[in-house]
Amino acid sequence: MPAIDKNNPALVAPKRSSPLFSPGTGDNSALVIFVLGGPGAGKGTQCANLVRDYAFKHLSAGDLLREEQDRPGSEFGDMIKSYIKEGQIVPMEVTIQLLENAMNAEIEKSGNRKFLIDGFPRKMDQALKFEEVVVPSMFTLFFDCDEKTMHERLLDRGKSSGRADDNEESIKKRFRTFVETSMPVVEHFEKEGKVVKVDANKDREEVYEKVKEQFTKREVPKGQ
Ligand code: ADP
Ligand code: C5P
Ligand code: MG
């Protein structure tokens, strides 16, 4: 794994003493829901439903990293590529900066301040830093799914996804990272009473019904 140069100015996480946004939907605010779950649990699939019905902007950390990896001239391209293939978590400075840029771009473009942040935070340092310098989350939507189900879904997705990590070897590593590194994030937010857990083994429609029930209960606004 390439080492990262912590002295590289592009890699310094924003140094602020307070978050960029306040939580919510007013001026200078942002409403953020983190979407977590193992690889293949159905995060992206369910986010598409929520974008349609709740006017969220969907930001997938994995998609942003793949985009940055492919951007001509990116100084992080090679690093991101090897982290993704190995199922490791890319250093948080890169991912937080990509998310912050995407949030600012969306606010500028449409004025929408409601974000589903999918596949993030996947490590405790990301969780703490994002809430410290960007915005505290409203809650985490956690898709709880058996490994066997996720494994089948990923191999099926791999037939057409073109992803470098939808193969047996990478999947095994990604599951391990999920259990060892990402589940502690879910447990951290659980202690704060900020986790909405949904059984993701069911079919797409059933899963979404449960999501909607929870969003109604938590009074997530439907409009921007
Ligand atoms: P994630 O973003 O969590 O990795 P995806 O949303 O990409 O997961 O879903 C992984 C694969 O499983 C995709 O091919 C998707 O079409 C499929 N899928 C998603 N949800 C379900 C479900 N509830 N039942 C069966 N297949 C599903
Ligand atoms: O969410 P997705 O499955 O698209 O993520 C693909 C990969 O991107 C992860 O396995 C990991 O290598 C990287 N990633 C990361 N940090 C995140 C999200 C994704 O390093 N917060
Ligand atoms: Mg996804």
From TrEMBL:
Catalytic reaction list: UMP + ATP = UDP + ADP
This protein's record includes keyword Hydrolase: no
Residue positions binding ATP: G40, A41, G42, K43, G44, T45, R157, K202
Region (LID) location: 156-166
Top EC group: transferase
Highest taxon, organism lineage: Eukaryota
Entries under Pfam families matching the protein: ADK
Cofactor note: Binds 1 Mg(2+) ion per monomer.
Molecular function terms, GO-annotated: ATP binding; nucleobase-containing compound kinase activity; phosphotransferase activity, phosphate group as acceptor
PROSITE patterns membership: ADENYLATE_KINASE (PS00113)
Keyword Nucleotide-binding: yes
Localization (cell): Cytoplasm; Nucleus
Domain notes per entry: Consists of three domains, a large central CORE domain and two small peripheral domains, NMPbind and LID, which undergo movements during catalysis. The LID domain closes over the site of phosphoryl transfer upon ATP binding. Assembling and dissambling the active center during each catalytic cycle provides an effective means to prevent ATP hydrolysis.
Protein name per its UniProtKB record: Uridylate kinase
